[in-house]
Amino acid sequence: MTHQTILYQKHLESNAHMGTFSNWQMPLYYSGVLSEHKQTRNAVAMFDTCHMGQIFVTGENSLSLLESLVPRDLDKSQDGYCYYTYLCREDGTILDDIIIYRLSLNSFLIIVNAGTLEQDYLWIKDKAPSSVVVTNESDNWFKIDIQGPESLTVIDEFFPGNEWENLKYFSFKKVKHNNHSFIISRTGYTGELGYEVYGPVSYAETLWQDLLEKNVTPAGLATRDLLRLEAGYPLMGQDITPEMTPFSLGFSKFVSSRKMFIGKDALWDKKDTWLSIPFVLPKKAIARTGTSVLLENKPVGQVTSGTWSPLLQKSIGFATIRNPHKAIENITLNIRNQPMIADITTTPFIKSTSIKNNILKKRSSL
Questions:
Q1: pTM of the predicted model as reported, rounded to 2 decimal places
Q2: Which of 184, 188, 302, 331 sees the fewest Cβ atoms within 10 Å?
Q3: Measured CA angle at 81 (ends 79, 83), to 5 deg
């Protein structure tokens, strides 16, 4: 059974090309991936991300519960900030990558992936003591992402008087607008300056239509996928697979060595079998998802995300390979039965974006 977001009819009215993602009917693109990519990188675009899940954790021991569930230290977390982390199984592998919003000392909002919402909710609820209330509020909230160098101007126009230029990266505000409550964070999945807007589902179509009438360009998930890959963000279920740990992804900075959490003992003792590595292919060829990866002429894995970067004019991607337990500088990709050398690199693939620039800009038309 496939689901539809509250904005489904709006997408049809805009002649969006629809497709299925995690059992949701979602817009893949409207005018075209490349034009929407350009609009996001150079101006501003909006994305329907209502398929994402919202889980609220409230009660006296909420912080202690979350500390036990995730590998990242939260004991010094602050109200009004967001924290990227993971839910880990007992064996140290990743159940989901999530973002935790600290609303107050005893109240948290957890943003989870659409395909893992139910399992995440049950996992957290099962671990919660009686003093903590865990609720899945996903049906009651919408989520619209406004992304690009001019996104601050749009947010300031629609939600004025909140000093958005002072909002720090990975922080948020709770605001009132037209008698509705919203949570707006300076976060996103594009690598540009951007904001994620959460509000009551009854207001979703109104806000989307108002944004359209102000000439904010809608963009689809295929465009978002290209943007996130250029930014070097892995995708759950594609680049992050069930056998992986935070160490497999090179994200040891999000793992605490000084606290206990589910999966810690196994994680520190585990010899990672698989690694996710970012690569760049210098030649004019595209390493598509599923392309075989070779080391010393032996198959060791495959490309999990691969595309052509319009900005870099090169093929980029993530590959999952068996851990070679030694330093390597390149891999061989089997593209149409032709071996091609790809260089291992660091992320983000694109180094210069607006993500850290909180500057009001005059809106442009591309």
A1: 0.95
A2: 302
A3: 125
